[in-house]
Amino acid sequence: MEQALPPTELILNSPQRSLGRIPLTSMPQPGAQITHAGQVYTVLERRHRYRFTANHYQLHKIELYIQLAGTANDKSWLGDRWVVGDLTCEYNARSPIVRCAVNPEGPCDGCTHYQARG
Fold first, then answer.
1. Is the pLDDT of residue 1 over 50?
2. Domain range summary for the chain, segments of one domain joined by +
3. What does R_g of the chain's alpha carbons equal in angstroms?
């Protein structure tokens, strides 16, 4: 018998605030994308909270720390994964989560720190 998952709280990473609780049928891994209220978010971290009841621990709460995913034209395919930001920039982190070291929140368009990758 499979245990039903408790409601999952979505916590926006920056600015940090709760977006509410949602029911999930599966547990997304960090790096996965989920949709909530018409927006696409990337899962940064998943935390489980347990409660000790009747001599054993039970899963009580799940928290997903998320950030707004980049738009379709803000992503590039690199090898075997999607990465955000402008790949021609020297500072691009080549990551699906972090855009760059200088301007991690973005956007890349019009960034004053742009350096062509050499």
1. no
2. 8-68, 71-118
3. 18
What is the Cα–Cα distance from 60 to 49, expressed in whole angstroms? 6
Count Cα neighbours of 114 within 13 Å in the Cβ-side half-sphere.
12
**Beta strand 8-12 pairing with 56-68:** parallel
Cα 94 from Cα 18, distance rounded (Å): 28
pLDDT at residue 3 in the model: 63
Written as six digits, the tokens of 71 are: 């738009």
Cα 61 from chain centroid (whole Å): 18
Tokens found for residue 85: 């930001």
The residue behind tokens 């605030």 is 17
Tell me how far apart the alpha carbons of residues 2 and 18 are, in angstroms, rounded to a whole number: 28
pLDDT value, residue 9: 95
